[in-house]
Amino acid sequence: MFPKPYILAQFISVCSILSWLSAGIHYCFISSGLLKAPVYILNGKGQLYKNLNQIWHTRFVRRVISVSVRSPFRLSTLGLVNLNLVIPSDSGCVIAICHTPWKRLLVQWCLENNFSLIIAGGKWTKQRGRIQRQALGITDLRCIMKYLSQKGRVVIACDMFNNLNNCPVDFFGKHYNVSLLPARLARIAGVPLITALPVLRDETIKINEGPQFDLNSLKADPGDAMQKIVLFLETEIKNNPDVWHAAYYKHFLN
Hints:
254 residues, alpha/beta, seven-stranded mixed beta sheet, three-stranded antiparallel beta sheet, 10 helices, 10 strands
């Protein structure tokens, strides 16, 4: 791990002050009825101001890291990532992750450490595109299966909802259908499914461990595995709303 440069540490410290002020203003607007608090924040277990403070702090630190990771401090910035997962050494694995504020940092970290492939939509830049797969079409899926069979790791978002009816879940009091792709990839490749949750704590991005599922449980009921992952995610968001990048789901912001 590279030492954190002094200037980066100072910028992160400033983020704490800015978040305190921004959360206070945001809280006043909500209390006066001028703004409506997002559903996922209102459902949080902590006090409203505390939740807002955590979210604003994450927003400011995210901006600092976004600039720093493209600066001469790039390697030191990547050193902020602290992987707490127990990764299988004798097989590949599928790592289910939520839409996180730290996507840019984690993609760069995966590139630097040759850690995994990432299943994601959209058109990435040529450099980042080296580890991107969209899991669309037979060619892409064969590439992913081969990679997993060679003890590779694949990262994919677990909070992907669709219009099907094969894995219904409740998420913050509403009904959705979650994608079975993470569980199906792990089952077909014969590898475990691991849940990861990036969290900003103590000026470090900690990759904490969530529910894990072996091949037997995935064969028995892949839908049950996804339901448990979504339940875990909802519980963690209620405890710390800043862990989730809800901007991907605009209806959660109303």
